[in-house]
C-alpha cells in the first residue's frame, strides 16, 4: 500500500510501510539512505545518508501548512547565533491532500537527550546550559513573518485562549509579547553532551516563553530538572506571557486527553495553581 492520501485517516509513520517514500527521496536527493539508521516518529522519518548527512522526511496535511509553505527547516537557515545543524537541500512533493518534504542537513553534534519527556536527570554540564541560554536568547532577538505551529496548529491568540481556558477558566489570556520560538522544544529535539537544537519545521512567532515552558513541561517527571529549567529561563517564565505559556503547556498535560498515569500531573497542577493565583492577583 502506498501512502498517497486519498483518505483523511490518521497516518502513523512508526507503523506504515515507507520504502516507497525512502526510494523517492534517494532519487530526488541523489544519495543512498542507510536503512539501518532509520528513526521513525509519528509524522516524520529520519535517516543517515551515504555522504554523512541526515535527512528528515515529514508528512503533513495541506490543511496544516498554511501560508508558510511547510519549509521550516530551510527557512531556519537564516537564523544566526543558534546551535543547530546547517540545512543543505530540500525537496517536496504533493500527494492528494498531503505534502511530503525531505530536508538534508549536517549530522547532529550529539545524540538526542532522551524521548520528548525526560524520565531521569540527563546530568547536563554548565557549558550545556550556557549554550542553551545563548541559543534561546539569540532566537528571541531575531525577526520573522512566520507563525509558530506547535503540533502543526497555527499559534494564534484564539488558540492560546481556548487551550488555557479549557482547564483554567477565567484567566486573562491576552498575549503582549510575541517572539520567535522553535515551538517544539523538548528533550527529543536537543542534543547532549554538545548542545544543538534540530527539527525546525514548526518555528515562528509565539508568545514569549513558549520554548522555556515546553522544556519545563517535558521535565516535570524529574523535579530538580524542571526547577533548573525554570531557574535558567526565569526571565521568560516569570514574565506575564511566560506565565501564560506555563498554563498553555500545563493545560495540554492536564486537559481532556490527560494520561492518568502521567508522572507530571501533580507537579503541573501545583505550578499552574500558583501561576493562576499570581495572574489573578498581580
Question: What does this molecule look like?
Answer:
The chain is α+β, with helices and mostly antiparallel strands and 282 residues long. Helix content is 33%, strand content 16%. The strands form three sheets. It has a five-stranded antiparallel sheet with strand order 1-2-3-5-4, covered by helices on one side. The protein has a two-stranded antiparallel ribbon with strand order 6-8. Strand 1 and strand 2 form a beta hairpin. The protein is globular. About 2% of the residues have low confidence.
**How confident overall, as mean pLDDT?**
93
Separate helix tally: 9
Quantity of strands, as a count? 9
- Percent helix, as a range, is 25-40%
Helix/sheet category? alpha+beta
Brief overview:
The chain has helices at 19-29, 72-75, 126-140, 157-165, 210-217, 223-232, 234-237, 240-254, 265-281; strands spanning 39-40, 44-48, 53-61, 87-95, 98-106, 111-112, 178-181, 191-192, 204-207. By secondary structure, the protein is an alpha+beta fold. It has a 5-stranded antiparallel β-sheet with strand order 1-2-3-5-4, with helices on one face. The protein has a two-stranded antiparallel sheet with strand order 6-8.
Amino acid at each position: 500500500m502506498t501512502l498517497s492520501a486519498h483518505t483523511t485517516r490518521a497516518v502513523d509513520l512508526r507503523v506504515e510501510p515507507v520504502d516507497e517514500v525512502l526510494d523517492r527521496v534517494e532519487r530526488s536527493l541523489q544519495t543512498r539512505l542507510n536503512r539501518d539508521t532509520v528513526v521513525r516518529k509519528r509524522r516524520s522519518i529520519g535517516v543517515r545518508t551515504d555522504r554523512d548527512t541526515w535527512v528528515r522526511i515529514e508528512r503533513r496535511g495541506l490543511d496544516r501548512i498554511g501560508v508558510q509553505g511547510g519549509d521550516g527547516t530551510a527557512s531556519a537557515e537564516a537564523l544566526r547565533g543558534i546551535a543547530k545543524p546547517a540545512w543543505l537541500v530540500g525537496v517536496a512533493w504533493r500527494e492528494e491532500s498531503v505534502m511530503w518534504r525531505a530536508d538534508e542537513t549536517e549530522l547532529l553534534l550529539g545524540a538526542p537527550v532522551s524521548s520528548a519527556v525526560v524520565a531521569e536527570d540527563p546530568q547536563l554540564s554548565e557549558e550545556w546550559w550556557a549554550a542553551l541560554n545563548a541559543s534561546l536568547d539569540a532566537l528571541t532577538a531575531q525577526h520573522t513573518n512566520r507563525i509558530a505551529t506547535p503540533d502543526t496548529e497555527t499559534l494564534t491568540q484564539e488558540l492560546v485562549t481556548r487551550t488555557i481556558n479549557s482547564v483554567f477558566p477565567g484567566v486573562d489570556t491576552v498575549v503582549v509579547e510575541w517572539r520567535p520560538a522553535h515551538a517544539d522544544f523538548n528533550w527529543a529535539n536537543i542534543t547532549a553532551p554538545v548542545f544543538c537544537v534540530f527539527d525546525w519545521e514548526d518555528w515562528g512567532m509565539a508568545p514569549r516563553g513558549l520554548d522555556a515552558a515546553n522544556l519545563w513541561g517535558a521535565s516535570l517527571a524529574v523535579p530538580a530538572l524542571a526547577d533548573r529549567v525554570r531557574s535558567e529561563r526565569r526571565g521568560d517564565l516569570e514574565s506575564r506571557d511566560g506565565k501564560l505559556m506555563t498554563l498553555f503547556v500545563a493545560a495540554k498535560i492536564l486537559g481532556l486527553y490527560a494520561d492518568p498515569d502521567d508522572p507530571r500531573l501533580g507537579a503541573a497542577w501545583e505550578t499552574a495553581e500558583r501561576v493562576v493565583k499570581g495572574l489573578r492577583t498581580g
